[in-house]
Amino acid sequence: MEMLVHGNALMALAAAVLWGGGDFAGGMGVKQAGGSMGAALRVILLSHCASLSLLVLAAWARGDAFPHGAALLWGLVAGVTAGVSLACFYIALSRGAMGASAALSGLLAAAIPAAFSAAWEGSPGMLQLAGFWWRGFRSG
Asked: 54-69 burial, b for 16+ CB within 10 Å, e for fewer?
């Protein structure tokens, strides 16, 4: 069990480093390309094409079927929304407001799903809150 906890911590640390590194590289790429919305969209298009190529290759290797219907529609809506928000984020990063932009982005990335979940499913009950506390107590 002890090894699993350390492995999870290392994977979380690697994810944070890679995610932050990707954001930093995207912001720097947009800055180098001119700092405009067009520059941001070019950087995002290039990086997403590379990511999509790897994703399609992995899905093909696994034998997964191409999504259709509602799953495809939701995927397209999510992709367009993520692309536009990422362009705005990269422009903010390229203009030197990295501290404020990253902090606000991190806050909203956590707060919006939490607020939606609380509104849609209700706030956690006493048993769930006790579980959060106990898990935090045991891991801390």
From this structure: eeeeeeeeeeeeeeee
pTM more than 0.70: no
Neighbours of 16 (CB within 10 A): 10
Please name the residues in contact with 101: beta carbons below 8 A apart, sequence gap of 6 or more.
89, 92, 93
Cβ atoms of 92 and 26 closer than 8 Å: no
* Residue showing tokens 């932050």: 20
Specify the long-range contacts of residues 133-137, CB closer than 8 Å, at least 24 apart.
none
Q: How far apart are CA 74 and CA 82, in angstroms?
A: 12
Count of other CB atoms within 10 angstroms of residue 130? 11
C-alpha to C-alpha distance for 125 and 80, rounded to whole angstroms: 35
Rounded Cα distance between 139 and 129, Å, is: 15
pLDDT in tens, 54-74: 988 999 999 988 888 999 999
Quote the crossing angle between the two packed helices 37-62 and 70-94, to the nearest 10°. Answer: 140
